[in-house]
Amino acid sequence: MIAPSILSADFARLADELAAVPTSDWIHVDVMDNHFVPNLTLGLPVVKSLLQVTDIPIDCHLMIEDPDRWAIGYAEAGAYNVTVHVEAANDPVALARNLKAAGSKAGLSIKPGTPLEPYVELLKHYDTLLVMSVEPGFGGQSFMADVLDKVRQARHLVDTGHLKLLVEIDGGINADTIEQAAQAGVDCFVAGSAVYDAADPGKAVEALRAQAAG
Ligand code: DX5
Ligand code: ZN
């Protein structure tokens, strides 16, 4: 699965930018609050507008403090998957339950420096695991291959039936890095600059998909 991140799109033309990637599996929307990360992007009103102009499922990545308070609104608005950071969540089990009750999938994200082991038990409450392969906050950063160990761990837990989870990766995914991520066991690839800095974003999505499939 390929999920273009609109962080690298033209924010003045978001409807057009979504239309430019019609074969995407998900559209990845980065919500940043300038507290959890040192950058500020967009919030619920923009997500509600995006939901009006596309049928592609919206994947909200909340890089915000106090997701226990704010995440539910994205699920209620109709986002397909709502991902919160384990480093920010106060009660991640209740949060997952509330997101699913509101009608979305529940996603848990871990920063590059956060280990997976302490959260394995928690993951049974979640539908997706978003492994960050850059420090969250900005597009266009270099891929951190070290995090692929966490992808392999998660893949193993899924393949051996210990977890039922979709493994997503975010940060630095492009033509040079997607194959190693695919080999490590990623299901869903977020790509911002590799899609929206390309001359033809729609073709870039298809090229990444073909590479991921090997
Ligand atoms: C970064 C965001 C990413 C970002 C990825 O904090 O979570 O989704 O858009 O951008 P690229 O693909 O350019 O690394
Ligand atoms: Zn993201």
Automatic annotation (TrEMBL):
Catalytic activity: D-ribulose 5-phosphate = D-xylulose 5-phosphate
UniProt xrefs under SUPFAM superfamilies: Ribulose-phoshate binding barrel
Pathway info: Carbohydrate degradation
The keyword Cytoplasm is assigned to this record: no
InterPro entries per the UniProt record, alphabetical: Aldolase_TIM (IPR013785), Ribul_P_3_epim (IPR026019), Ribul_P_3_epim-like (IPR000056), RibuloseP-bd_barrel (IPR011060)
Assigned EC number: 5.1.3.1
The protein's enzyme class: isomerase
One Gene Ontology cellular component annotation held by this UniProt entry: cytoplasm
GO MF term (any one): metal ion binding
Amino-acid positions noted as binding a divalent metal cation in the UniProt annotation, renumbered to this chain: 28, 30, 61, 170
Cofactor(s) needed for function: Fe(2+); Mn(2+); Zn(2+); a divalent metal cation
HAMAP family, per database record: RPE
PANTHER family in alphabetical order: RIBULOSE-5-PHOSPHATE-3-EPIMERASE (PTHR11749)
Similarity remark: Belongs to the ribulose-phosphate 3-epimerase family.
Chain's role: Catalyzes the reversible epimerization of D-ribulose 5-phosphate to D-xylulose 5-phosphate.
Name this polypeptide is given: Ribulose-phosphate 3-epimerase
Native species: Lentzea albidocapillata
